[in-house]
Design brief:
623 residues; alpha+beta; seven-stranded mixed sheet; 16 helices; globular; Heterokaryon incompatibility protein-domain-containing protein; HET
Length: 623
């Protein structure tokens, strides 16, 4: 006969506890979990125990496939963490050789679609057990349906995110034709035409990596205008074409095809228009997990977790299993499906960590290679809304919100910070990326009283940008020029090769720090020869003049972190005054490279000595 729990459960510390008291992080032995689950004395323990029994064979098989079976992994305990949702991990010990532990994260959840029609049982903190069961392989229909839902919610609830209804088309655009009539994909010179279009953000990759060399050049543009054979189109482009058609959008912008790549004048002119191209798009699709343009958006889902003390990782497929109620749960209903639908899968953690935390791009180079690239930085910030195709799940990022396919990002606090930057003592690079990326920038731009903070927001963004990879060193300013165009405002003054007049003198206080430095956690790419020949110069007082190499990065962290250290902001000397400035541009892009520049400033002079020695940095502190 089953028993009924009375009072709170002291095993899971979830059942019978108010939500405010469930901020727990603790281990439960298998014996204690089984005892609490017997007879459904605790329905939460019962669900967790049944999920472990259901999924343990899947983990065992993964261990065998990875070669870990020889280390004799043994399941010792279940670790439960409960914050915005319940996270369960299996703690294994490797008994052969040096004893090590492996934590295998699991998602245990009630499917959000099922509970619409079936009452939720009295499990502990049920709202934190609700998620969405995802197909193990993504397909265009599923992606388009979810995208429509997010677009509709964004249109209805986010006044800042509504894309222009009939914007000017970019200079050139891909015309995807009319389904069922003429589906030839061809390049189109837009002239003065208007219409909705999707923009693609992706990582080009190299031929050696499997990438395609499909480009528009001065010799191929005539053929592109006639039509592009489907078999010549790389897989990433094919997938976004299918998605665009599914969403009913006829036009698509892809940089490698819509910019004449060997025409320097056209390249510089179009690079300066990125704020318009991405800012006017109906939607930007980001091939976030694709290493090159031949990788599909619609692939098997996968996650990854590390083996402690080893460089090896385990990379399993993400496939849910329906939870089976173990025989010991009740005496009358052995081995039946949990109702409503309970599921268990490997824990989806990489996408949440990537998008919920700041300053971590290179830590996700495997699952989000696009976001390690400097060009993708402005492609992420400029659009009204972006649909990311991550290795684990799709992620929605707009000016006012961030959501994920499984639904767990939806439960985190959203919205704009009440104040920003220097005026408030709030340093944006210390906040989660969901707060400081799109929303902080747009919040400061929309509110006149916060516009003085734009200078500090700019230095924050530059600090993040300078940690990302560039294939061509001469792209360093052009890859930021769209963002600079978005920031252009009289209160910021003239743009000075990566700085604004309003960022002076603070913008002159950059450092070149080593890779091991406390403020450098991401390795920049090795400088490469310029793709676009021509002058690429900047004044020595600007950060853009510093040649970056493997092991060094330019940082504004000290000037930005002062308020973290002593609660005080840098105080600009009352004696400092910018008298005059001038830049001579090397191209038509006013946010690009210069052939000459000068500053005239007024202030106090002091004696100083040059010290040559090793750079000592502060140790990393937890945030």
């Amino acid at each position: 006969m089953s028993t009924t729990r009375v009072g709170p459960c002291y095993t899971c510390c979830l059942e019978g506890w108010p939500l405010s008291r469930t901020q727990r992080n603790h281990d439960i032995s298998l014996r204690d979990l089984d005892a609490a689950a017997r007879g459904s004395a605790c329905t939460t323990c019962s669900l967790i125990r049944d999920a472990v029994v259901t999924f343990a064979p899947v983990v065992d098989a993964e261990f065998r496939n990875s070669g870990l079976a020889s280390s004799k992994p043994e399941l010792k305990a279940v670790k439960i963490a409960c914050h915005d949702f319940i996270q369960v991990s299996l703690r294994y010990e490797l008994l052969a050789g040096e004893v090590r532990q492996i934590l295998v994260p699991l998602d245990i959840f009630l499917d959000v679609e099922t509970i619409k029609t079936v009452p939720v049982p009295p499990v502990g903190a049920p709202a934190r057990l609700i998620s969405r069961d995802l197909p193990s392989r993504l397909n265009v229909s599923w992606a388009a349906n979810l995208a429509r839902t997010w677009i509709r919610q964004c249109d209805e609830c986010h006044p800042l995110c509504r894309a222009p209804s009939n914007p000017h088309l970019p200079t050139r655009i891909l015309d995807l034709g009319i389904p069922g009539v003429d589906e030839t994909v061809k390049l189109k010179v837009s002239g003065d035409e208007h219409g909705q279009y999707i923009a693609l953000s992706y990582r080009w990759g190299t031929v050696a990596e499997g990438g395609s060399t499909l480009l528009t050049t001065t010799t191929s543009i005539a053929d592109r205008l006639k039509g592009i054979p489907w078999h010549d189109i790389p897989q990433t482009f094919r997938d976004v074409i299918e998605l665009s058609r599914e969403l009913g959008i006829r036009y698509l912008w892809i940089d490698s095809l819509c910019i004449v790549q060997d025409d320097e004048e056209d390249w510089n002119k179009e690079a300066a228009r990125m704020a318009e191209v991405y800012g006017n798009s109906f939607l930007t699709v980001a091939a976030t997990s694709a290493p090159n343009n031949n990788a599909s958006l619609f692939t098997e889902r996968w996650t990854q977790f590390k083996i402690p003390g080893s460089p090896d990782t385990i990379t399993p497929r993400l496939a849910s299993k329906r939870i089976i109620r173990a025989a010991s749960s009740t005496e009358t209903e052995p081995d039946v499906l949990v109702s409503p639908a309970g599921f268990v899968r490997y824990g989806m953690h990489m996408a949440h960590a990537q998008f919920m935390e700041g300053d971590n791009a290179q830590q996700h180079a495997v699952d989000s290679p696009l976001l390690t690239r400097a060009w993708s930085f402005q492609e992420r910030l400029l659009p009204h809304r972006t649909l990311h195709f991550h290795a684990e799940e799709m992620v929605w990022e707009c000016k006012m919100d961030m959501r994920c396919e499984c639904g767990r990002m939806d439960r985190n606090p959203r919205g704009f910070p009440p104040s920003l930057g220097k005026a408030s003592g709030l340093i944006l690079t210390t906040l989660p990326s969901r707060i400081w990326l799109k929303s902080s920038m747009n919040w400061a731009m929309l509110h006149p009283e916060l516009r003085p903070d734009l200078a500090w927001v700019w230095l924050d963004l530059v600090s993040e940008y300078l940690q990302l990879d560039l294939t061509y060193e001469t792209d360093r300013l052009p890859a930021l020029s769209g963002l600079a165009a978005r920031f252009a405002h009289p209160e910021l003054g003239t743009y000075l090769a990566g700085l604004w007049e309003a960022t002076l003198p603070e913008g002159l206080l950059f450092q070149v720090v080593p890779l091991e430095g406390a403020h450098c956690r991401i390795r920049p790419a090795e400088p490469s020869p310029a793709r676009h020949p021509g002058p690429a110069d900047a004044p020595t007082w600007a950060w853009s003049s510093i040649p970056l190499g493997r092991g060094t990065v330019v940082s504004f962290s000290d000037i930005l972190a002062v308020c973290e250290i002593d609660g005080q902001n840098w105080a600009r000397s009352k004696h400092f005054r910018l008298v005059d400035s001038r830049v001579d541009l090397s191209t038509a892009n006013r946010f690009g490279w210069t052939t000459g520049a000068y500053l005239t400033v007024c202030g106090l002079l002091g004696d100083c000595s040059e010290l040559i020695g090793s750079l000592v940095t502060r140790p990393e502190t937890s945030k």
